[in-house]
Design a protein that fits this description.
Elements: H1 7-25, E1 35-44, E2 49-50, E3 53-62, E4 65-66, E5 70-79, E6 84-85, E7 89-98, E8 101-102, E9 106-115, E10 120-121, E11 125-134, E12 137-138, E13 142-151, E14 156-157, E15 161-170, E16 175-176, E17 180-182, H2 201-222, H3 224-236, H4 238-260, H5 266-298, H6 304-318, H7 324-371
Parallel strand pairs: 1-3, 2-4, 3-5, 4-6, 5-7, 6-8, 7-9, 8-10, 9-11, 10-12, 11-13, 12-14, 13-15, 14-16, 15-17
Helix pairs in contact: 1-2, 2-3, 2-5, 2-6, 3-4, 3-5, 3-7, 4-5, 4-7, 5-6, 5-7
Organism: Haloarcula mannanilytica
Keywords: Membrane, Transmembrane, Transmembrane helix
Protein name: DUF8173 domain-containing protein
């Protein structure tokens, strides 16, 4: 049994490892006094209390207490019968269901929005969906835009019901203190203000650093010699790398646009645009890795993993500096793009020469055998 993995085996192992790491970061349960982030499932248990929830997930369930607001984008958002939200609920989801208590307003957009019989909303309901059903108590007004709206027999609404719907069904027992008014101006404006789902800038920086580190780990683990050559090229001749990077950044989009103007070239242009986007991301990581390698060389240190960390973390910090940070990131990107293009060209030429050399050897051997 071999003691070392083949080159292909190393690459597969690296990809599998990083895939597991990525999956582990998107699956979790809310913990701590408040939740802010992304996960597969976010659950507030029946005996738990949180200050607030601001998250993106496949499923968000509130069985316990949230003293503040809930701002969520998910496949399903559910405040159960035992759930209580002291503030507002702002949700964009395939299904939004309220069966518990909400002290403030509910603003929701989705495929289906249901206010169950046991639900009590202390403020207003602002809903935009394909189907809206109200069976519980709403102390304020209702503003809804939907294909179909149902006011069930247990519905109790303290204010007006303003709606824009193709169909509205109101049970005789449904209690509406105010008026039921058709308002065609509601249209697509019903539902939450999606600006509420904007995460703090520092969270975006951390996420960007994390995914760049993961990509860097893949590149260094799967293509160690190629990565080293890219970094060496930047260190040995940064002017050439930067110049080629600038030329590539200008020329490739021009070529893609020209291809887009021809019927035959449209598929090539679309595939090329995707490939260039991926290459640009790889180039950005390689450029920062190369700068990190150069910085370590000044201290007579050589460690590719440390160089990756120094480069990416350093540029993440520099990125916070107005103007200068963006300029330095652009320089690193151009260095990485140029070095990547030159190294790929060198590798392609090397393989071509090896292939021609192999064919020539075969011909020579064949000639020698005939002569013999």
């Amino acid at each position: 049994m071999p003691s070392k993995l083949s080159s292909g085996g190393r690459r597969v192992a690296a990809l599998a490892l990083v895939s597991l790491l990525v999956l582990s970061t998107v699956t979790g349960v809310a913990a701590g006094q408040s939740y802010q982030g992304a996960g597969d499932t976010i659950v507030v248990g029946a005996d738990e209390t949180y200050d607030s929830i601001e998250g993106v997930a496949g499923t968000i369930v509130v069985r316990g207490t949230v003293t503040g607001d809930v701002a969520a984008a998910a496949g399903t958002v559910h405040v159960t019968e035992t759930g209580a939200v002291g503030g507002n609920v702002e949700a964009a989801a395939g299904t939004v269901r309220i069966d518990g208590t909400v002290g403030g307003d509910v603003s929701a957009a989705g495929g289906t929005i249901e206010i169950g019989e046991t639900a009590r909303i202390g403020g207003d309901l602002d809903a935009g969906a394909g189907f809206v059903a109200i069976h519980g108590t709403i102390d304020g007004t209702v503003r809804a835009g939907a294909e179909e709206i149902v006011l069930g027999p247990t519905a109790s609404i303290g204010g007006d019901v303003r709606y824009d719907a193709a169909t509205i069904t109101r049970a005789p027992e449904a209690a509406v203190t105010g008026s039921v008014i058709q308002d065609e101006s509601i249209g697509d404006s019903a539902g939450p203000d999606f600006g509420a789902f904007a995460f703090p800038s520092w969270l975006g920086v951390i996420y960007g650093l994390f995914v760049n580190l993961l990509l860097g780990v893949i590149l260094l683990a799967a293509f160690p010699s190629f990565s080293a050559r890219v970094a060496e090229r930047v260190g040995e001749n940064p002017a050439t790398s930067g110049g080629v990077g600038l030329l590539t950044l200008v020329a490739v989009p021009v070529v893609l646009v020209v291809l887009l103007l021809t019927i035959v070239g449209i598929p090539l242009s679309l595939v090329g645009a995707v490939a260039f986007g991926i290459a640009a991301w790889v180039a950005a990581v390689y450029g920062q890795f190369a700068v990190g390698s150069w910085a370590l060389s000044l201290a007579d240190r050589e460690n590719r993993w440390l160089a990756l960390a120094v480069g990416l973390v350093g540029f993440a910090i520099l990125g916070a500096v107005p103007v200068l940070g963006g300029l330095l990131e652009l320089v690193a990107f151009l260095l990485g793009l140029g070095a990547l293009a030159l190294t790929l060209r060198e590798s392609y030429r090397g393989r071509g020469e090896q292939s021609r050399g192999g064919r020539q050897t075969a011909v020579d051997e064949g000639g020698d055998a005939t002569a013999a």
